[in-house]
């Protein structure tokens, strides 16, 4: 029986599936075989010896020590696209809030709610809260993955002109985009041409600070910046100055921190992008499904530190799951140990990602503890699991 520890609240639509399958939940993170997590910061937490996997019910994995996990043979999963619709809707909402002073108008009504003349006064006051329309404006979308592509398509439907920038866009993702989206290969071209710029890239060493003082200086005067990706993408000091002097008209962000919360002309939300029932259920179901497939079958889908492996469900025999360095000779040595143990290899898959590799071998025959020990002792092998079919 596998033990799961939840680092955050995870939708019961997902966790119930684990309970129904006989999994146990533990409050003790160090005793768990796997962790389910949303945004809890795992960088400072010790990774227990027995931890096999971390499943992030969501997209961003900058809260997880992905490389350290890979070195230990701990598979990290995320749930690509499972919360994209929720974020897209909030981004469009953020853009509309920047177009018109909806918040100011609603606050005015609240402040005047006891005034019997409110209806008449509202007609006079409303000119303070007017604005402009999104249709016809040019919006730059940085990052055209699950969220960025949905935002770009929605903006086209709303009548905006859209420029997209994503140097790593896959051909399939490019085909899926509305053909009216102008694909630019120069970020500066997008920054200088757009009325709105919206960020949809992961937080990585490459993207940190990508909206630098220089990038801000290239933006159109009076442009609006939206950040529903991560706060570290933006040089917040430079942005605060640009908001003060009006170079940037509005900053709409999902990341409240001491800097953003005090910015002039900013609309700051408490990380609400994925906080809909639908998105939470989707993410939990996907995370749990991937976790089960790995724990019970050794298969890996949507991992951010190991490649995809799919030998289907394990029905007979057993599987040997090996994490090892991606170097010459490992597979030969592993096959020799398996053969010497009298096991027959029925099926096998090997994938590598950078320095790390994963090999899943389906065997028939009795897998003794000595086989696992012999495999674990091989050079360059980090971890060995023996997986048997559920009885
Ligand atoms: N506010 C929220 O609640 C919320 C919810 C989900 C995701 N997010 C954030 O949004 C990010 C994107 O989510 P997603 O689901 O679209 O991820 P995704 O992986 O589907 O898309 C990310 C895209 O960014 C592109 N990219 C990477 N580096 C780039 C660069 N330097 N310049 C331009 N493009 C680059 C990738 O090629 C990819 O297409 C997540 O990593 C997370 O940080 C926030
Ligand atoms: O990367 C994500 O998926 C989002 O930032 C959502 O984070 P949350 O699950 O903590 O709401």
TrEMBL record:
<dbReference type="InterPro" id="IPR029752">
    <property type="entry name" value="D-isomer_DH_CS1"/>
</dbReference>
<protein>
    <recommendedName>
        <fullName>D-3-phosphoglycerate dehydrogenase</fullName>
        <ecNumber>1.1.1.399</ecNumber>
        <ecNumber>1.1.1.95</ecNumber>
    </recommendedName>
</protein>
<dbReference type="InterPro" id="IPR015878">
    <property type="entry name" value="Ado_hCys_hydrolase_NAD-bd"/>
</dbReference>
<dbReference type="InterPro" id="IPR036291">
    <property type="entry name" value="NAD(P)-bd_dom_sf"/>
</dbReference>
<dbReference type="InterPro" id="IPR006140">
    <property type="entry name" value="D-isomer_DH_NAD-bd"/>
</dbReference>
<comment type="pathway">
    <text>Amino-acid biosynthesis; L-serine biosynthesis; L-serine from 3-phospho-D-glycerate: step 1/3.</text>
</comment>
<dbReference type="InterPro" id="IPR006139">
    <property type="entry name" value="D-isomer_2_OHA_DH_cat_dom"/>
</dbReference>
<dbReference type="InterPro" id="IPR002912">
    <property type="entry name" value="ACT_dom"/>
</dbReference>
<keyword id="KW-0560">Oxidoreductase</keyword>
<keyword id="KW-0520">NAD</keyword>
<dbReference type="InterPro" id="IPR045865">
    <property type="entry name" value="ACT-like_dom_sf"/>
</dbReference>
<feature type="domain" description="ACT">
    <location>
        <begin position="319"/>
        <end position="389"/>
    </location>
</feature>
<comment type="similarity">
    <text>Belongs to the D-isomer specific 2-hydroxyacid dehydrogenase family.</text>
</comment>
<comment type="function">
    <text>Catalyzes the reversible oxidation of 3-phospho-D-glycerate to 3-phosphonooxypyruvate, the first step of the phosphorylated L-serine biosynthesis pathway. Also catalyzes the reversible oxidation of 2-hydroxyglutarate to 2-oxoglutarate.</text>
</comment>
<dbReference type="Pfam" id="PF00389">
    <property type="entry name" value="2-Hacid_dh"/>
</dbReference>
<dbReference type="InterPro" id="IPR029753">
    <property type="entry name" value="D-isomer_DH_CS"/>
</dbReference>
<dbReference type="Pfam" id="PF02826">
    <property type="entry name" value="2-Hacid_dh_C"/>
</dbReference>
